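Repro:
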Amino acid sequence: MRIAVAGATGTVGRYVVQAARERGHEVVELARGRGVDLTTGEGLAARLTGVDAVVDVTSVATQRQEQAEAFFGGVTRTLLAGERAAGVGHHVALSIVGIDDVPSGYYRGKQLQERLVVEAPVGWSILRATQFHEFAEQALGFVRVGPFSLVPRMLSQPVAAVEVAGALVDLVQAGPSGRVADLAGPDRLEMVGLARRVSRARGLGRRVVGVRLPGAVGRGMRDGSLCPAGDGPRGTITFDTWVAGS
């Protein structure tokens, strides 16, 4: 199959590219560094020629609803229009577990993305996954004050990005499947503790301070709303295994 990966150079995207190629698929990378601007559509049409499926793992660094909706809405509309024109038969989108229950601006953008995919005339699949193991290291850089890193208190069931990528390629091969079961990691863990473990393992010397975010967003992060509510596929790579091997 010929598979286009939107966000191909990101945390999950590079693993999707790797997994697809290892399985013998031809991969087209859709990223600004590859000459494609997904916010404007520049360079997209030529890259979608002969493509069977598009995997969208794009992301944006914002918590503001207006910016998140503008990004996810714009990129999704651009991709879907390009896919329809090129005759692409399958759109696979990566989303996040719990976005209906935690009212953050970023999650509002992901909800818009899902709605656009569901309403489009292109066959689709949506996989929601929990935070990646990699999120713990990213959290060390969210708010830095000298040697201190302020990390939100949240309960998560993190999964390795490489396993998320494998599940996305599985969906490509299965064909349009709709909203599939949520993917999570093997263990429920506190993000503050994970950030401390990453700092020690990497020798970063960060002093992690847990912060209780206010309001409904903070409560949702702490009470497990971002963890799967029912049964579903679970990754097998534990956080400790990931830290030791990455």
